[in-house]
Amino acid sequence: MQADDDLIDAYCGVGSFGLIAADKVKSVRDVDSERTTIEDARFNTRKNKVENANFYIGNADQVMNRLAKNNENTSVIIAIAPKKGLLKGFIEASVKMQPREFIYLSFNPDTLVRDLKYFKQNAYETKAITPIDVAPQTLDMMCICRLDKEN
Protein backbone atom coordinates (compact mmCIF):
# COMPACT_ATOMS: atom_id res chain seq x y z
CA MET A 1 0.00 0.00 0.00
CA GLN A 2 1.06 3.54 -0.71
CA ALA A 3 0.58 6.85 1.10
CA ASP A 4 -1.83 8.21 -1.54
CA ASP A 5 -3.99 5.06 -1.67
CA ASP A 6 -7.70 5.00 -0.92
CA LEU A 7 -8.61 1.69 0.75
CA ILE A 8 -12.03 0.07 0.92
CA ASP A 9 -12.39 -2.59 3.62
CA ALA A 10 -15.50 -4.51 2.56
CA TYR A 11 -17.22 -6.82 5.03
CA CYS A 12 -15.04 -5.00 7.56
CA GLY A 13 -16.54 -6.25 10.81
CA VAL A 14 -14.95 -4.21 13.61
CA GLY A 15 -12.54 -2.59 11.15
CA SER A 16 -9.33 -4.45 11.98
CA PHE A 17 -7.78 -4.34 8.50
CA GLY A 18 -8.66 -0.69 8.05
CA LEU A 19 -7.08 0.11 11.41
CA ILE A 20 -3.88 -1.71 10.48
CA ALA A 21 -3.64 0.11 7.14
CA ALA A 22 -4.88 3.56 8.21
CA ASP A 23 -1.46 5.08 8.86
CA LYS A 24 -0.15 3.78 5.52
CA VAL A 25 -2.90 5.15 3.24
CA LYS A 26 -4.68 8.43 2.51
CA SER A 27 -8.15 7.17 3.47
CA VAL A 28 -10.06 4.10 4.60
CA ARG A 29 -13.70 3.31 3.86
CA ASP A 30 -15.14 0.57 6.07
CA VAL A 31 -18.23 -1.21 4.75
CA ASP A 32 -20.40 -3.66 6.69
CA SER A 33 -24.08 -4.58 6.81
CA GLU A 34 -24.25 -4.76 10.60
CA ARG A 35 -24.84 -1.47 12.40
CA THR A 36 -23.35 -2.82 15.65
CA THR A 37 -20.09 -3.86 14.01
CA ILE A 38 -19.78 -0.46 12.33
CA GLU A 39 -20.35 1.14 15.74
CA ASP A 40 -17.53 -1.05 17.07
CA ALA A 41 -15.33 -0.08 14.11
CA ARG A 42 -16.01 3.61 14.84
CA PHE A 43 -15.12 3.05 18.50
CA ASN A 44 -11.89 1.29 17.49
CA THR A 45 -10.86 4.13 15.18
CA ARG A 46 -11.52 6.74 17.89
CA LYS A 47 -9.63 4.70 20.49
CA ASN A 48 -6.67 4.37 18.09
CA LYS A 49 -6.87 8.05 17.04
CA VAL A 50 -7.48 7.19 13.38
CA GLU A 51 -8.82 10.24 11.56
CA ASN A 52 -8.91 9.11 7.93
CA ALA A 53 -11.71 6.51 8.16
CA ASN A 54 -15.29 6.73 6.89
CA PHE A 55 -18.04 4.21 7.46
CA TYR A 56 -20.82 2.79 5.31
CA ILE A 57 -23.64 0.67 6.72
CA GLY A 58 -25.26 -1.60 4.15
CA ASN A 59 -24.81 -4.73 2.10
CA ALA A 60 -21.35 -4.58 0.57
CA ASP A 61 -22.61 -5.17 -2.97
CA GLN A 62 -25.15 -2.34 -2.67
CA VAL A 63 -22.64 0.09 -1.15
CA MET A 64 -20.03 -0.78 -3.78
CA ASN A 65 -22.59 -0.36 -6.57
CA ARG A 66 -23.57 3.06 -5.20
CA LEU A 67 -19.91 4.14 -5.04
CA ALA A 68 -19.25 2.80 -8.55
CA LYS A 69 -22.33 4.59 -9.96
CA ASN A 70 -20.95 7.82 -8.48
CA ASN A 71 -17.76 7.15 -10.48
CA GLU A 72 -15.72 6.78 -7.30
CA ASN A 73 -12.46 4.95 -7.81
CA THR A 74 -10.23 3.33 -5.23
CA SER A 75 -6.67 2.05 -5.14
CA VAL A 76 -7.08 -1.03 -2.95
CA ILE A 77 -10.02 -3.20 -1.92
CA ILE A 78 -9.89 -5.75 0.88
CA ALA A 79 -12.82 -8.17 0.99
CA ILE A 80 -13.41 -10.87 3.57
CA ALA A 81 -15.85 -12.96 1.58
CA PRO A 82 -18.79 -14.72 3.19
CA LYS A 83 -18.87 -18.52 2.79
CA LYS A 84 -21.09 -18.15 -0.29
CA GLY A 85 -18.36 -16.07 -1.91
CA LEU A 86 -18.58 -12.57 -3.28
CA LEU A 87 -21.80 -11.60 -4.99
CA LYS A 88 -21.50 -10.95 -8.71
CA GLY A 89 -22.76 -7.38 -8.18
CA PHE A 90 -20.00 -6.76 -5.66
CA ILE A 91 -17.32 -8.01 -8.05
CA GLU A 92 -18.76 -6.02 -10.97
CA ALA A 93 -18.83 -2.82 -8.92
CA SER A 94 -15.32 -3.49 -7.62
CA VAL A 95 -13.98 -3.97 -11.14
CA LYS A 96 -15.72 -0.76 -12.26
CA MET A 97 -13.90 1.14 -9.48
CA GLN A 98 -10.60 -0.03 -11.01
CA PRO A 99 -8.54 -0.77 -7.92
CA ARG A 100 -4.87 -1.37 -8.58
CA GLU A 101 -4.90 -4.16 -6.01
CA PHE A 102 -7.59 -6.46 -4.61
CA ILE A 103 -7.00 -8.53 -1.46
CA TYR A 104 -9.50 -11.39 -1.18
CA LEU A 105 -9.86 -13.45 1.99
CA SER A 106 -11.86 -16.63 1.45
CA PHE A 107 -12.99 -19.50 3.64
CA ASN A 108 -14.51 -21.47 0.74
CA PRO A 109 -12.19 -22.85 -1.97
CA ASP A 110 -15.07 -23.52 -4.38
CA THR A 111 -16.36 -19.95 -4.41
CA LEU A 112 -12.79 -18.64 -4.38
CA VAL A 113 -12.05 -20.44 -7.66
CA ARG A 114 -15.34 -19.22 -9.16
CA ASP A 115 -14.63 -15.61 -8.16
CA LEU A 116 -10.98 -15.65 -9.27
CA LYS A 117 -12.13 -16.77 -12.74
CA TYR A 118 -14.44 -13.76 -12.94
CA PHE A 119 -11.66 -11.40 -11.85
CA LYS A 120 -9.36 -12.94 -14.48
CA GLN A 121 -11.98 -12.28 -17.17
CA ASN A 122 -11.96 -8.65 -16.06
CA ALA A 123 -8.20 -8.04 -16.29
CA TYR A 124 -7.11 -8.98 -12.76
CA GLU A 125 -4.18 -11.33 -12.31
CA THR A 126 -3.81 -13.51 -9.23
CA LYS A 127 -0.34 -12.70 -7.87
CA ALA A 128 -0.32 -14.80 -4.69
CA ILE A 129 -2.48 -17.22 -2.74
CA THR A 130 -1.55 -17.99 0.84
CA PRO A 131 -3.47 -20.72 2.68
CA ILE A 132 -3.76 -20.32 6.45
CA ASP A 133 -4.83 -23.06 8.83
CA VAL A 134 -7.16 -21.00 11.01
CA ALA A 135 -8.46 -23.97 12.99
CA PRO A 136 -5.84 -26.72 13.35
CA GLN A 137 -7.13 -30.30 13.39
CA THR A 138 -10.20 -29.26 11.36
CA LEU A 139 -10.91 -28.83 7.67
CA ASP A 140 -11.31 -25.06 8.09
CA MET A 141 -8.79 -22.92 6.31
CA MET A 142 -8.58 -19.44 4.89
CA CYS A 143 -6.89 -18.33 1.69
CA ILE A 144 -5.55 -14.83 1.27
CA CYS A 145 -5.30 -13.85 -2.38
CA ARG A 146 -3.66 -10.82 -3.92
CA LEU A 147 -4.92 -9.75 -7.32
CA ASP A 148 -3.38 -6.94 -9.37
CA LYS A 149 -4.94 -5.00 -12.23
CA GLU A 150 -3.31 -6.05 -15.49
CA ASN A 151 -1.86 -3.25 -17.61
From TrEMBL:
It holds the Pfam family tRNA_U5-meth_tr. It comes from the Bacteria. GO terms for biological process: rRNA base methylation. GO terms for molecular function: rRNA (uridine-C5-)-methyltransferase activity. S-adenosyl-L-methionine binds at Y11, D32. Gene3D superfamilies: Vaccinia Virus protein VP39. Keywords: Methyltransferase, S-adenosyl-L-methionine, Transferase. InterPro entries: SAM-dependent_MTases_sf, U5_MeTrfase_fam. Belongs to the class I-like SAM-binding methyltransferase superfamily. RNA M5U methyltransferase family. This is TrmA family tRNA (Uracil-5-)-methyltransferase. The lineage of its organism: Bacteria, Bacillati, Bacillota, Bacilli, Lactobacillales.
